[in-house]
Amino acid sequence: MDLTPNDEQIAFQTATTDWCREHMALEAARDRPDGLWDQLEAMGLPRLTAPEANGGLALDHATEALVFAELGRFLAPIGLLSSAVANRWFAEPFDGKVALALTVEEPGPLRVLDPVDSAAVLLLQPGSVRVFDIPDRFLNQMTRQQHVTAHRPTIDLSTMQSEQGWATTAVWTEDDVRPPLHLQLLAAAYAVGCADAARDMAADYARLREQFDRPIGWFQALKHMCSDMAVRAAAARSQLYYAACALDENAADAAFHVAAAKRLADQGALDNGRANIQVHGGIGMTDEAAAHLPLKRAHLLQFIAPAAREALLA
Amino acid sequence: MDLTPNDEQIAFQTATTDWCREHMALEAARDRPDGLWDQLEAMGLPRLTAPEANGGLALDHATEALVFAELGRFLAPIGLLSSAVANRWFAEPFDGKVALALTVEEPGPLRVLDPVDSAAVLLLQPGSVRVFDIPDRFLNQMTRQQHVTAHRPTIDLSTMQSEQGWATTAVWTEDDVRPPLHLQLLAAAYAVGCADAARDMAADYARLREQFDRPIGWFQALKHMCSDMAVRAAAARSQLYYAACALDENAADAAFHVAAAKRLADQGALDNGRANIQVHGGIGMTDEAAAHLPLKRAHLLQFIAPAAREALLA
Amino acid sequence: MDIGFSPEETHFREECRDWLHAHVPAEKRPLDAADAIGFDKAWQRRLFDAGWAGINWPTDYGGRGLSIVQQVIWLEEYAAAHAPWIGANFVGVNHGGPTLILNASEEQKAYHLPRILKGEAIWCQGFSEPGAGSDLAGIKTRGRIEGDELVINGSKIWTSFAHVADWQELVLRTEEGSLRHKGLSWAICDMHAPGITVRPIRKMSGQTEFAEVFYDDVRIPLTNVVGGLGNGWKVAMSTLSFERGTGFIADQVKQSHEIEELIAAARANGMIKDDRIAGHLAQLRAEVAAVRAMTYRNISEVVRTGQPGPEASVIRLFTSELGQRLERMAVLLMGEAIIDFAYGDDDAVGDYLRGFAATIAGGTAQIQRDIIGERLLGLPKSR
Amino acid sequence: MDIGFSPEETHFREECRDWLHAHVPAEKRPLDAADAIGFDKAWQRRLFDAGWAGINWPTDYGGRGLSIVQQVIWLEEYAAAHAPWIGANFVGVNHGGPTLILNASEEQKAYHLPRILKGEAIWCQGFSEPGAGSDLAGIKTRGRIEGDELVINGSKIWTSFAHVADWQELVLRTEEGSLRHKGLSWAICDMHAPGITVRPIRKMSGQTEFAEVFYDDVRIPLTNVVGGLGNGWKVAMSTLSFERGTGFIADQVKQSHEIEELIAAARANGMIKDDRIAGHLAQLRAEVAAVRAMTYRNISEVVRTGQPGPEASVIRLFTSELGQRLERMAVLLMGEAIIDFAYGDDDAVGDYLRGFAATIAGGTAQIQRDIIGERLLGLPKSR
């Protein structure tokens, strides 16, 4: 039993953080450079746990969770989540980004997140994940109307969305609880990173900003608000690591632990996101400051593989 | 429209507070003098809104709510609630205290609060209140066992309880929504007083107790805890007044307003009761200090005419 | 104590309702200040012409001179009729105007008050500075006296409607080297004066409503000072205590409508079947009732004594946090549709994002709790 | 990173389970300290004789010298077997003993440690004073040096098991006129020494477990000072940081069982059908899992580096508040039956009332939040 990251994991984690800080700053989340995805691909980030035969690094979920929490801290593309899952669980190669669709009752139209330049889209279903191709246009099976897959913004300023029809041509996983848990785990990792980002932003500001001739972090009310952010982030992060290990070991209670991680991470991301704005005061409400970015990302993440109450009580 | 108490009401309120402070101190709640009920009777407190024909003062519910909030602040006997309701809505005279039974599915045995020296017991039912005599012993209709009405303590150190069977000999109100609302209003008034008592105890302690060479109320964390107590008490009190007026005017939405008052008062009493102990620190956890008394009373009050969600959403 | 209204008041309520029913504009108010300014001015003028602007303002300056209870009745009917937010006229009608009524000279009042009521002059507020937010007494913008003029240098921030305003209620330091609350003055600043630069700031909801204002040797006549040189803190506080007293009635009335709409929405989409949602809605409805009861109580206090009671700060805090709880519930009831929010959308998500201001602007919730602890409970001052 | 246990550890777990299954007493531990003392001593002796006392204590002093992971396994099995709380032995086994191991002389260790493990000597803690609660450095109890003795005067409070204890870990001011953290010493005080008066204090739950202790010219040998005269703060902090690190594992293990019992109870009485109850239980279960994950993480840190990580204070705060949430849920599930609580009852209400101590004793939740803000986030010190 050892829940501290080993040296190799820490090195990978640190390298990721350093790279993100330089090439994928949170502050620039709404305007990512064109070649970003190619760089992420080149570093193998969408294939950390994919088998070597598929060009993957065949690492464990524990390492992957550590790295994805760092990516999440910089509001990395949502498409990394679905791409990582697709590359891990399907033998056939997905050349390029796999977008992410939110759960729907089949065969309704899909809400596709981060679809720009995506070759395919991954959908979470009860007990399975399914991957469709992305066509240029689709037929809405309910209204019988043809739709062009136009890209629209989402509340998360770094993520676009489109609509797409249910397709009969798809691949899906069967008789394996792990693929859906994998997606939930990675989404939880993103949310943990998001909670961390908000905490750090708030603490940095509370150390520097002065009112009444003192840093505002001197005042207990704001200090405790920051402390609570630290508590939420720490709890979610520990549970994330534990859940990743449970998934690696295919433990009987892995589904519970991953759901618990997602629940706590989502709450941490939302609550920290809100508290971060309050700590920032006026500047926190502006578009030019970055305080709103983690909050808006948190609002998106809560709809990606949410933790069902049944899973938590099972 | 005028929601400030008039001079007469303020005078009555002040006189009640002064009398309570001298004769019915909160700190002595667990050991009330023998003649207390007679004194309360002599002052007409169980008959404030009772018709003059029944020896009552025929005052309005607004005045009664003000006075009962003060009584509640000193943890006055629970029997005042039921006696006031019984004396108001029944023509026949109840000579002495009327105890209070918690709601049960008929014809189960009753949990009777404050039964000591009570001649009768009042039970809240949907749309009605019912008054039974108190016998020396009763037959449990489910187990067919004979029980003596022995007195046992409750969590509230100033209130005893006993068990009693459902009786066929009883009087009850019909076709009038006001009697049950009256009981709920007075219970809310007690809870408002309870929330006030906890707030004042905490603020007093925070002004005097020193740590780190300052009154602990100087520290923002404790100051804000006290501020939140003040907010809860103020909100509950305003809603109590409004509800009392609504009941006086037999307003169409009186049932909602009384339920809202009870809900906020119960929460205020519980949350302030807990916060009061935290503000007191070590001494707050002891039996010899009085900080636990309002909290325990609050736990009892929440079961007296609780605010149903349906009433709040109606 | 009673909650009824007199026959005269009831008659007034009917009058309000009838007029609003006939005149509330069908089109929605634009959200961006620049787009909304024409709408806001026209609507204010319409209110004035029909006698609804300044219900409790003195008749000498274009008001109706009616009671605060009638003002409340008007606001209740206004909200019930879904009449538009008064927008750009907010500062003039709710802050600047009342401050002038309390503190200004006859000349100042005679010139400005009717223009405010008619929607002819748009006002903005110049209190906060980049370095003086919660710490309002940390104001650094200074006004040098030169002859019969003030020469202003410095900057203000979070000034709503600055880029469309004609006048500003400006608090600045007129005594060199003075500290904290001393040496400040409250002046009427011409927003069209040379040397003023306005940098609009976009909110995280996408609207551009507030701005940063820079003053570079801006000259205004000394006669524009209100309440006397060096009395700026006192004059500003008279506005703020008004805000804390009855200035937020409109918000509270709005909440009464919002909770009913939320309950209706939850019934419509079936989410009320979830006990947690139903429980939250029940709780929120009780809290909204309490805010209304507290507000009525506070108004009764004003009617009796001429000023709001000490619990006004409690109402202020409770209302601002309750507003956020209502906005969060509205967003919760939207479900996944929250994802579709795009900058500038005038929906529940926009309200939620803009609503963060409630516990920040005009004194953070932390400052409010300090005030309650210190003034209501007598706890020692921390700052 | 892995969550599995080695075959050796798994074998150890089975050993624990088997022994506990055969030996956990059938009768309940009495709650009052005076009634429980015999029970506690007998049970501790039984643990010692079977080799379960001091699993990770050095073998030289009667311990088993095993790893902290094995200690955790023991505690997990201990809780699973519903074995009784170690009660009066708590301070000796969990505070005093570990402090001696870290700081005491060979002679002190050789004398005291085996007696603690065997349940022969009961220890109590003398840190807090009537005027020094959250402000522990405000200690006023003084020890005057006379020859080779300390002469002690003053008082301590919240001393659990004081009225049944043989020894006390006592922090007192041995340098006259010294301030705050300086001039304090940590000494072993004989509770049977003349001049000691113990006034037991009843808790609001009805138990008498802690007491106020008065010292009137109490004489103890200077050799009873541990870690050197004037080093009391450092020595005391070594205990406290132990508490914050791994000392609360037992509580956390207990919470894992409590949540399962609560869920079972809610299923049994049907209250789980209420979405709010079910939602709360789901949330609590996730939080309990997180505490366990954090604890495991912290233990891994101890195994790797020899000391708990900086996040130990987070675990401490989270666990204490989570414990209270669990106790409140237990009371909620009782419904009206909470009314029947009478002083001394050993039920969920008693746990709830005693549980207020979790955010007060050993540093209030407010102090914990200060520590987290200052040490983890680098915010400026407020005190």
Backbone shape of chain C? globular
User: Which CATH-level-2 architecture of the largest domain in chain C?
Assistant: Up-down Bundle
- Give helix % range of chain C: 40-55%
Question: Main sheet of chain C?
Answer: 4 strands, mixed
Secondary-structure-based class of chain C equals alpha+beta
In terms of DSSP E residues, the strand content of chain A is 5-15%
Radius of gyration of chain A: 19 Å
User: Which CATH top level class of one domain in chain A fits?
Assistant: Mainly Alpha
Oligomer: heterotetramer
**Average pLDDT rating of chain A:** 94
The CATH topology of the largest domain in chain C is Butyryl-CoA Dehydrogenase, subunit A, domain 3
Look at the structure and name the CATH superfamily of the largest domain in chain C: Butyryl-CoA Dehydrogenase, subunit A, domain 3
Largest β sheet strand count, sense and barrel closure of chain A: 7 strands, mixed
Q: Provide the low-confidence segments of chain C as ranges.
A: none
Task: Characterise this structure.
The complex is a heterotetramer, with two copies of chain A (314 residues) and two copies of chain C (383 residues). Chain A is α+β, with helices and mostly antiparallel strands. Chain A has nine helices and eleven strands. Chain A has a domain at 178-313: Butyryl-CoA Dehydrogenase, subunit A, domain 3. Chain A has helices at residues 7-23, 36-42, 61-73, 79-89, 178-208, 220-248, 254-280, 292-301, 309-313, and strands at residues 98-101, 110-113, 120-125, 128-133, 137-139, 146-148, 152-153, 160-164, 170-172, 210-211, 214-215. Chain A has a seven-stranded mixed β-sheet. In chain A, strands 5-6 form a two-stranded antiparallel sheet. The mean pLDDT of chain A is 94. With 383 residues, chain C is α+β, with helices and mostly antiparallel strands. Chain C has three domains: 7-117, Butyryl-Coa Dehydrogenase, subunit A, domain 1; 123-231, Beta Barrel (Butyryl-CoA Dehydrogenase, subunit A, domain 2); 248-376, Up-down Bundle (Butyryl-CoA Dehydrogenase, subunit A, domain 3). Chain C is built from eleven helices and eight strands. In chain C, the strands form two sheets. A four-stranded mixed β-sheet of chain C has the order 1-4-5-8. In chain C, strands 2-3-7-6 form a four-stranded antiparallel β-sheet, with no helix packed on it. In chain C, a hairpin with a 2-residue loop joins strand 2 and strand 3 (149-160). Chain C is globular. Chains in contact: A-B, A-C, A-D, B-C, B-D, C-D. The A-C interface holds A 102, 111, 152-156, 161, 210-212, 216, 219, 221-222, 274, 277-278, 281-282, 284-288, 291-292, 296, 299-300, 303 and C 128, 131-135, 138, 157-158, 201-204, 206, 336, 338-343, 349, 353-354, 356-357, 359-361, 364-366, 369, 382-383.
